[in-house]
Amino acid sequence: MKKFRIIFSLAISFLLISATIAQDLISVNELAKKMSDPNLIIVSAQKSDSYATTHIKGSINLPPSELTVNEPVDYVLDTPTNIAKKLGAAGISENMEIVVYDEGSSKYSGRLYWTLVYMGAENVKILNGEMTAWKEGRKPITNTSFKASPAIFTPSVQVQYLANIDEVRKANDNPNYVIIDARTAEEYNGIDETELRKGHIPGAININYTEMLDANGKLKSKEVLSSLFLAKGVSPDKTIIIYCASSVRASIEFFALESILEYPNVKVYDGAFNEWQSDENNQVIL
């Protein structure tokens, strides 16, 4: 009996740990049950034309691009003050339960998730499977836009989630860091047609962001993700910096590492390859 109690306790502990790890990922059925919660706001990260075609009923539209500026390079975060004003105007406060989703790519929901946790939002989740899973679950959709009442978003900037160009330079040959390029292999290897310099940041390894997703567009399991990253030398004892062209695709890898796998030191290089390659003094390798 004592042995049974020990095994039972271990099983319960495992389930609790698993639930905690997955706390930032919400299923279609879980979200559907919470739709009437007054502290819940559902945010579509879809581009405006996609949102206008179809979206989750009751969700507001806030593409992550609206929280960016194009100086010194395209698609970098606006100031925390300006972002907070835009979030508040959209009806989002930092203490709401915020569920984000996009059209199915997880690029834009990932970027919005990262922006919100960087700004200090307390409870942000991504809808697993995005709009694709919501439709497959036959949940309510509409093409009628929805506006939430304005709120106040009080920022508490989490600087540990943001890497700047100086830290990336320091990380190039530092064994305590791993730099991940979340672009395609063609972009990484410099064989893709682009207006940018061809190649990647020295020392970066390539893990395409699509490797986070299964065939149905849902996040792969914790076990599969862990094996994927460890096989590439991405271990939790390192500081991880992720980038892509403009750090949209990078952000879903941030989510996988920081939320699902609970790596303690994960950052997004917001300036991304756009910024890196724009300085001729920065080496780009093939």
The tally of domains stands at 2
Average pLDDT number: 92
What's the gyration radius in Å? 19 Å
- CATH topology-level name of the largest domain: Oxidized Rhodanese, domain 1
**Assigned CATH architecture of the largest domain:** 3-Layer(aba) Sandwich
Shape: globular
> How far is the N terminus from the C terminus?
62 Å
The CATH homologous superfamily of the largest domain is termed Rhodanese-like domain
Biggest sheet layout: 5 strands, parallel
- The CATH first-level class of the largest domain comes to Alpha Beta
Count of alpha/pi helices:
11
The string of secondary-structure elements, in order, is: HEHEHEEEEHEHEHEEHEHEHEHEH
Strand portion: 15-25%
Work out the helicity level. 25-40%
* Structural class by sheet pairing and helices: alpha/beta
Essential attributes:
disordered N terminus, alpha/beta, 35% helix, 286 residues, Oxidized Rhodanese, domain 1
Give an overview in words.
By secondary structure, this protein is α/β, with parallel strands linked by helices. The chain has two domains: 23-157, Oxidized Rhodanese, domain 1, CATH 3.40.250; 160-278, Oxidized Rhodanese, domain 1 (3-Layer(aba) Sandwich), CATH 3.40.250.10. 35% of the residues lie in helices and 16% in strands. The protein is built from eleven helices and 14 strands. It has helices at residues 2-21, 28-33, 48-53, 80-90, 107-118, 130-136, 165-171, 185-188, 222-231, 250-260, 272-278, and strands at residues 25-26, 40-44, 55-56, 60-61, 68-69, 76-77, 97-101, 123-127, 141-142, 162-163, 177-181, 205-206, 239-243, 266-269. The strands form four sheets. A five-stranded parallel beta sheet has the order 1-8-7-2-4. A five-stranded parallel beta sheet has the order 10-14-13-11-12. Strands 3-9 form a two-stranded antiparallel ribbon. Strand 11, helix 8 and strand 12 form a beta-alpha-beta unit. Helix 5 (107-118) crosses helix 10. It is globular and about 50 Å long. The chain starts with a helix and ends in an 8-residue tail after the last helix.
